[in-house]
Design goal:
With 315 residues, this protein is α/β, with parallel strands linked by helices. The radius of gyration is 24 Å and the shape is elongated. Helix 3 packs across helix 4. It has a seven-stranded mixed beta sheet with strand order 6-7-8-3-9-10-15, sandwiched between helices. A hairpin with a 2-residue loop joins strand 1 and strand 2. Bound molecules: adenosine-5'-triphosphate (ATP). The site of adenosine-5'-triphosphate (ATP) has 12 residues, from strand 2 and helix 1. Belongs to the ABC transporter superfamily. It holds the Pfam family ABC_tran. GO terms for molecular function: ATP binding; ATP hydrolysis activity.
C-alpha cells in the first residue's frame, strides 16, 4: 500500500518538449484517469513510470522510495503499442510472462487461468494471439498486465476499441483491483467512461498538468453554472427580469442557464424569478467532464505558457 508519486518530470525528444514538469500522484486504492489531447504527454509519462524511458529531470516514487528496477517488476503495464507475441498461444504467453516476473510454474498457471476466465478469453487459451479479434487481444493484454499480481497498474488507453461488454468487463477488473488497494493509472480519450469510473482525474496539456482532482472538484474550477425555470416567462435571450450580475449562457424555452458574475448572485436570480411566478427548477448544473475538460483546455490555450503551474483542485 502506498502512493505512486510522479514528481516534476521533464522530457524532450530532440528539441520537442514532451513533458514540462509533470507532477501528480495516484493513491493506493484509487482509479486515476489520465486525460489530455493527442501529444499532450500521457504515454511519455507512463513510459517513464515503467522505466522504458528515462526523464531528463524529475522522479517517480512508490511509497516514498524512488522506483527502481526491482519495484518496476511489481508494476502491471499495458503499453499503447501493445506488446504480445502474435504467434504465441494465449495461455503459454501469459504463463511465460508470469514466470518472467518470478512466479512459480504452478502460480503462473493458476494466475493465467484466473485472468483468462475473468476477462472472458478462457476458451482462447490454446489459440495464437494473432488469431484473436483486436478486442480479445486487448483483453489478453490486460491479462498480461495482471498476471503477476502487480502492486501498481499503469494502462495506456486500455479501453480504446473495446465493445461495450468488454468495457464493462475491463471496468469491473480495474475497480476490483483498486478495491484490493492497487493504485490504477490509465489514460483515455473516452471522457464519459473516465467520469463514471475514476476516483480522480488529471488533465495534462502540452506536457504539464492543468488540473487534478475528483470530477466534483474540477467542477469548482471556473465559473459554476446554474439553471432556473419560470414557465410562461418571456423567451427573449436574456429576459429583462434577470439581474445584471449574472451572465446567461444558454436558454431552452423558459429554462435559463447562467453563470453568476459575483458569488451568491444566483440567489438574486432566484428572488427575481420568484417575483415572476412559480419556479419549477433552480439548481446548480452538474457539468459533465467533457465540458469541464474543454474549458480547462481552452483556458490553457488562451493563457501564456507557464508550464510549472498546475491547478490542484484536490483538497
Ligand atoms: N519517440 C518519440 N520521438 C519523438 N517525439 C516523440 C516520441 N514519442 C512522443 N513524442 C512526442 O512527444 C509528445 C508527447 O507524446 P505522447 O505520446 O506522450 O502523447 P500522448 O498524450 O500519449 O498522445 P496520444 O493521446 O496521441 O497517445 C508529442 O509531441 C509526440 O509527438
Amino acid at each position: 500500500m502506498g502512493t505512486l508519486e510522479i514528481d516534476g518530470l521533464t522530457k524532450s525528444y530532440g528539441s520537442r518538449k514532451a513533458l514540462r514538469g509533470t507532477s501528480f500522484d495516484v493513491r493506493s486504492g484509487e482509479i486515476f484517469g489520465f486525460v489530455g489531447s493527442n501529444g499532450a504527454g500521457k504515454s511519455t509519462t507512463m513510459r517513464i513510470v515503467l522505466g522504458v524511458l528515462m526523464p531528463d529531470a524529475g522522479e517517480v516514487r512508490w511509497a516514498g522510495r524512488p522506483v527502481d528496477h526491482a519495484l518496476r517488476r511489481r508494476i502491471g503495464y499495458m503499453p499503447e503499442e501493445r506488446g504480445l507475441y502474435p504467434k504465441m498461444k494465449v495461455g503459454e504467453q501469459l504463463v511465460y510472462l508470469a514466470r518472467l516476473h518470478g512466479l512459480s510454474k504452478a502460480e503462473s498457471v493458476a494466475s493465467m487461468e484466473r485472468w483468462t476466465s475473468t476477462l472472458g478469453v478462457d476458451e482462447r487459451r490454446e489459440d495464437e494471439v494473432q488469431k484473436l479479434s483486436l478486442g480479445n487481444q486487448q483483453r489478453v493484454q490486460l491479462a498480461a498486465a495482471l498476471v503477476h499480481d502487480p502492486e501498481i497498474l499503469v494502462l495506456d488507453e486500455p479501453f480504446s476499441g473495446l465493445d461495450p461488454v468488454a468495457v464493462d468487463v475491463m471496468s469491473g477488473v480495474l475497480r476490483e483491483r483498486a478495491d484490493a488497494g492497487v493504485p490504477v493509472l490509465f489514460s483515455s480519450h473516452q471522457l464519459e467512461l473516465v467520469e463514471a469510473l475514476c476516483d480522480r482525474v488529471g488533465i495534462i496539456a502540452a506536457g504539464a498538468m492543468d488540473a487534478v482532482g475528483t470530477v466534483e472538484e474540477l467542477r469548482s474550477i471556473g465559473n459554476p453554472q446554474w439553471v432556473v425555470d419560470v414557465p410562461g416567462t418571456s423567451d427573449a435571450s436574456t429576459p429583462a427580469w434577470v439581474p445584471d450580475d449574472v451572465r446567461v449562457v444558454g436558454r431552452s424555452g423558459s429554462r435559463i442557464t447562467f453563470e453568476p458574475r459575483t458569488p451568491g448572485s444566483e440567489q438574486t436570480v432566484l428572488r427575481a424569478a420568484l417575483a415572476q411566478g412559480d419556479v419549477t427548477e433552480f439548481a446548480r448544473v452538474r457539468r459533465p467532464l467533457t465540458e469541464l475538460y474543454r474549458d480547462v483546455v481552452r483556458v490553457d490555450a488562451d493563457r501564456p505558457t507557464d508550464p510549472t503551474t498546475a491547478t490542484e483542485a484536490s483538497a
